[in-house]
Amino acid sequence: MNEMNSGSLSNTPKQRKNPRARFNTTVNMVFVDGKTFSAMDGSEKFRVHRAEIKNISSVGMLLRTCDFDPNFEPRMLAGEIALSFKFSLPGYINPINVLAKVMRVTREASQLASFYNIGIQFIKINPVEQAAIDRYLKGNGKKDI
Q1: How far apart are CA 32 and CA 90, in angstroms?
Q2: What percent of the chain has pLDDT over 70?
Q3: Where are the domains of the chain?
Q4: pTM for the whole thing?
Q5: Distance (Å, rounded) from C-alpha 27 to C-alpha 52?
Q6: What DSSP string runs through 71-84?
Q7: Mean pLDDT across the stretch 123-137?
Q8: Residues in contact with 10: Cβ distance below 8 Å, sequence separation at least 6, in sequence order
Q9: Residue predicted with more confidence, 48 or 62
């Protein structure tokens, strides 16, 4: 794995403050303006990016995707681009709406494809939905993930 950049999220289980739970579901995300949280201009305005949630914590999650243009990484890490998406949480009826900033990006290269692991931090989440995530983590969270 080649480290492209690292933000302030803890990268190793020993450094983590918040328990995480393994979580494997696919999401469709869009890039939004990191300041106004509105749709971006240009070619990214309506483009949907597909990613898989690998793990979740009370403050963020790890996404894995091959649908990523590394040219956007500097703008994401600078907070100019945020991510917006919905996901389903086991035991919770409504979809959880997420607005998140990118904290780090790492690249995994294989002979078949390149994947990107994107560590995100929630920046806007409904308190009821946050409570649902916290309940989910109580029964499934571990610090060594």
Answers
A1: 27
A2: 81
A3: 2-7+19-140
A4: 0.80
A5: 6
A6: GGHHHHHTTSEEEE
A7: 92
A8: 16, 17
A9: 62
